[in-house]
Amino acid sequence: MSNELLFLALVPGIIIIIFIFRKDKVEHEPVSLIIKLLALGALSCVPAVFMENFMTMLSPGFAPRSLPYAVYEAFAVAALCEELCKYILLRLGSWRNRNFNYRFDGIVYGVCVAVGFALLENVLYVMQGGIETALMRGVLAVPLHAFCGVFMGIYYGAAKKESLSGNMAASSAYTFKALIIPMLIHGFYDCMAFLENTAASIVLLAFVAFMYYIAVKRVNQYSRDDVTAAFYHGSGPLNF
Length: 240
Hints:
By secondary structure, the protein is an all-alpha fold. Helix content is 80%, strand content 0%.
């Protein structure tokens, strides 16, 4: 059974990576770099756990399932710590890489790090929770991390573009967006999950469906327009 559970835990992330890789139509990223970023994403779980434990210690002690509890645990603990750690490892692993030369590359890198984090987390949860956990997380939690990776990558790519142009103020603004927007997406998802009531569950499912639509739409848009978005040559104006 453990082999089947491991397979179920890994499949959603693998499907997402294949989808993103195929959407990188102008210039595929090296497989070695993809693997490296997946590994760095998994590694980012380690500092995230320590940060989450620290933030949990600072918790005011709200009643479980209450709105203040859900907001604190979702935004201050999970979203802040996990997205910050993912971004730091993303930056360390790709910012100066010579292959980072197109706007869509930022999305590829962001999703790889996010999925690397999600895969390790998913294996741990699925091995404890079984097939039902695997199926639920496969359509909810793992894609949630990928959604965050898409939006982190969009603004990460914009930050790199502006940095190369010497516009450091704009680069910093896009870096802030690369952090705050995934935190908001992640935090809202977790907040609804932590409330553990029927109304919140309905909102969560609607939110995930909406994010599937928006994330795929943005991936398709940036994939289609990537031919005009090189950082070093033949580049037109970018709209983020």
